[in-house]
Amino acid sequence: MDLNQIFNTDNPIIGVVHLLPLPTSPRWGGDLKVVIDRAEQEATALASGGVNGIIVENFFDAPFAKEQVNPAIVSAMTLIVHRLMNLVTLPIGINVLRNDAQSALAIASCVGAQFIRVNVLNGVMATDQGLIEGNAHELLRYRRELGGDVKILADVLVKHGRPLGSPNLTTAVRETTERALADGIILSGWATGSPPSLEDLELARTAAGSTPIFIGSGANWENIPTLIQAADGVIVSSSLKRHGRITQPIDPSRVGQFVDAMQRGLKPGDPSQWTVPSEPEFPVKNPRP
Asked: Is 214 buried (19+), middle (13-18) or exposed (0-12) by CB count in 10 A?
């Protein structure tokens, strides 16, 4: 997976747009325009703050179906992602929670999105939705059938889940890259907002070889200068929200702080000696109107 070709950088920051509850979800509010407006606001905030890509998730649809979601959710996400692709110039990805990878791939293929996130591509995880089994064999054949080249970023030992048995992290990463053929690996902490350890990132990077490693949760402007030393990119959301609260919208100034901290982390030197300013020190980009 050539990160520079997709994100125009070898170390991309992918910001997350958490969609408000969608049709048929328990907290659906009945007005799709409200969902669209919030998504457009957050995508614009991420773009203006300087991220390199965006991933769209049906985050507030909890409790999630463990596999296939309702067709209304697929329809709504297709519409929203298409709108966002006409709003910002950044590459966009899709994650249909909890693990509807085929719907994510279908949406991406139809609207021209560049990548998807798959929480369980291979193996079996015990989650709050029950046992989730990976279906890499079906997903990769479906991608070939659709005729596109949508990249698959796969979680290894995904957050909010526990593997059956006690797999070695190195083995799990190798199986996800070599047997499930993931294009990128995502390593998270135990839950949303919890970062992976530096040691685990280093183990995963060694096991992944040339396959890029993404930090999948818990990154903030304090820990990213250190964590990025053992990863290629980061997927970030919680720390970019207003007051750091997951239910709040994206705050462009917090995005700027994170981007600045990431850039400092990529410079030569000891990350522990760097300080992070209270305000970003760079001009933000203007999203496409």
From this structure: buried
Cβ(94)–Cβ(154) below 8 Å: no
Half-sphere exposure of 180 (CA within 13 A, CB side): 31
Three-class DSSP labels, 47-65: HHHCCCEEEEECHHHCCCC
User: For residues 143 and 146, what is the distance between their CA atoms, to the nearest angstrom?
Assistant: 5
- d(C-alpha 242, C-alpha 244), whole Å: 5
Q: What is the CA radius of gyration of the chain?
A: 18
CB of 139 within 8 A of CB of 104? no
Cα gap 192→9, rounded to integer Å: 26
pLDDT tens for the chain, 289 residues long, are 999 999 999 999 999 999 999 999 999 999 999 999 999 999 999 999 999 999 999 999 999 998 899 999 999 999 999 999 999 999 999 999 999 999 999 999 999 999 999 999 999 988 888 899 999 999 999 999 999 899 999 999 877 777 787 678 999 999 999 999 999 999 998 777 789 999 999 999 999 999 999 999 999 999 999 999 999 999 999 999 999 899 999 999 999 999 999 999 998 765 554 444 444 433 333 433 3
44 DSSP assignment: H
pTM listed for this prediction: 0.90
Q: Decide if 38 contacts 32 (C-beta within 8 A).
A: no
Tokens of 202: 């280093």
Q: Determine the Cα–Cα distance for residues 115 and 85; give it in Å rounded to an integer.
A: 13
